[in-house]
Specification:
Strands 1, 4, 5, 6, 7, 19, 20, 23 and 24 form a nine-stranded mixed sheet that branches. A seven-stranded mixed sheet has the order 10-9-17-11-12-13-14, with helices on both faces. A five-stranded mixed sheet has the order 26-33-32-28-30, with no helix packed on it. About 2% of the residues have low confidence. Helix content is 21%, strand content 28%. It is elongated, with a radius of gyration of 27 Å. The protein is built from 14 helices and 33 strands.
Length: 597
Amino acid sequence: MELKLLLFLMPLWIFSHPLMLLDMAAGNFGVPVVVNGLYYGRATGMAPRARIAVYKAIYPSIGTLSDVLAAIDQAVLDGVDILTLSIGPDEPPEGTLTFLSLFEIFMLAAHKAGTFVVQAAGNQGPSPYSVISYSPWAVGVAACDIDRTYPATLILGNGLKIGGVGLSGPTFGGGLIQYKLVLAKDAVKKNSTFPRIFNADECQYPEAFDPLVVQDSVVICTFSAGFYNGNSSLMGIIHTANLLRFKAFVFVANPSYGDFIAEPIPFATPGIMIPTTIDTQNILQYYERETVRDKNGFVVRYGGRAAISEGRIASYKGRAPIVSRFSSRGPDYIDQSKNPTDVLKPDILAPGHQIWAAWSPMSVLNPILSGHNFALLSGTSMATPHIAGVAALIKQYNPSWTPSMVASAMSTTATTYDNLGDPIMAHGFDLYTLYTSAPFGFGAGLVNPSHALDPGLIFSAGYEDYISFLCSLPNIDTAIVKSATGGVCGELFVNPSDLNLPSITITSLNGSRLVRRTVMNVGSKAETYVSAVLAPKGVMVDIQPSWFKIAPQETQHLHITLNVTQPLDEFTFGEIVLTGSLDHVVKMPLSIFPNVI
C-alpha cells in the first residue's frame, strides 16, 4: 500500500520548520547528519517509504486562517492519509466552544474523509489547562525528553570540572591546554559607558571591550536583563567572540535572575552554557581568588585559567522519557473560561526535546542556524511528526483501519513507565526538578510503535459519534452544532464521556456514573480477556463483564461504573487493564474529579 503523508508549516501560531516535519515523519533512511563539518550520525524518518505532499499555507512574515483551512481542504480532496499539524491557536476561540471553531471543524471534516489528524499539544507547559489541541477527533501530541544528551565540561585551573551545555568543539588542546579566564565586565574599555548602558557583561557589543584583554582568552558572559527581556542573544555572543578572537566563551547564569534553560546549539566557536547559579558561583569564586585588582577594583593581573572539553559527543544515560517542561498540559477545556470537558488531552507522548532533523540553510526565523542543513530543536512540533510517522506504519500494516482505530491502537499500547522501570516523570515549574507525571502530562503514555501494530482490541468512533458527542455537551444549542458541522443531532449520549474513546475522563463525578465502551477484536484469533482496575483515589470502579471471550472482528460492550468514595478537590488518576490470553494488553487511562458522594 502506498501512503501519502501531508505536512505543512504554520508559523502564524506555532512552532516549527517544514523540512524538520518532513524529515522526522517520512525522511529517507540513514541520512548523514553533518553540522559545522562534524558527523553526528545518521537520521531516519519514522516511515521513510511514505509519500509526502506539502501545501504551503503561510510565509514567515504573514499567514491567515483562510489559507490554512484551504490547505487542509485541498489535502483532503487530494486523498492524503495522514495530516500532521505542528500548529494551534494562541488561545481559545471567542464566542464559541473550543470544539466548534473553524479550525476544529475542518479537522473534523478531514477525519470524516478518512484522514488521520495529528496535532501538536502546545508549548505552554508546565501550566495546567495549557493544551491547544482540543477535539477528540484530532490526536494531540505531548513532548518528552530522551536519554541522549551532549555534555560539555568547563575545566578550571584548580582542576574543578563543571558540566554544561554547548554542542561545540573544545578549546585548542582538547582541554589539556588552559587559557586566561576573563570576566567580560572586567574587560570593558576604561572610561567606557557600556557597563551602565548596554550590559557589557552579556557580550553583545564588541566595541565595548579591550581587544588586547579578551583575545585568546576564555571570556565569561553573563545572563542579564537583555537576555531576560529578549533583546540579547547567543548570536550576539558568538559575533563578539569571533570578531575579537576569544579562545572560547562561557555563558553563565546570573544569581539575580536565577537558573535558565540551556538548549544545545551548534557553536562554530568553542563555547559552553552554565545554566545554574550554583555552578556560576563556583566559577566566580575561583576567578576572584586568582584575579588581582587595584584599589579601584580594576584588574591588574588575570591569574585564572580555563579550558572547554569536546561537547559534540552524544551520551546515552539517565532517565527517559521525561515529559518536557514546555509541553502543554491538560485538562482539556471547552471554552475561553477554560471550563474542563470530558476528553483526555494530550492523547499521546512522543520524543520532542533535542531532536535532529533537516533544516533549511536560509533559516529565516532562526539566524543562529543559518547555513546549516540540520538542526537540533525542541517542541511539541518535534513530537507530532513522530506520531504521524507511526500512524503511517500502522495504516500500511492495517490499510482498512479508520483514523480512530489507528489512534486507539497507539493509545492502548502506550507505556506509562520509563527506562528505569519507574512511572514517567515530568519537569515542573522549578527548573531541573522532576515530579511524577499523569495523563494530563503524557496522555495515554509514550507511544510504542511495534505494539501498536497489533493492539488486540480497539475503540472506534466515527463522524456520527462525534456529532452525538457535541450534541450531548452541557447546555449546547443543537442548532449551533448543525450550523457548524452540517450534522443533525440524533441519538444523544447520556453523558459526553460515553464517546467511545480509549480513555475515560470525567470532570465532575457526582455520586455514580455508568460509562459505556465498545471494543473490537482486530486480531486474527479468538481471545479471552480479563479486566483489572487501578482505581483513582476516591473512586470505586467496576467493569462488566469482568472477563469475556471475543472472536476476530466481533465487538464487546463494556459497562464501567464509577462511584465516589471520597470527594476531592482535584483530579485523580488510574487505569483499566484488559489482559488477553494471547498476550495482548489493552490499557485505558482514567482521569476523574470525584466531586460528591
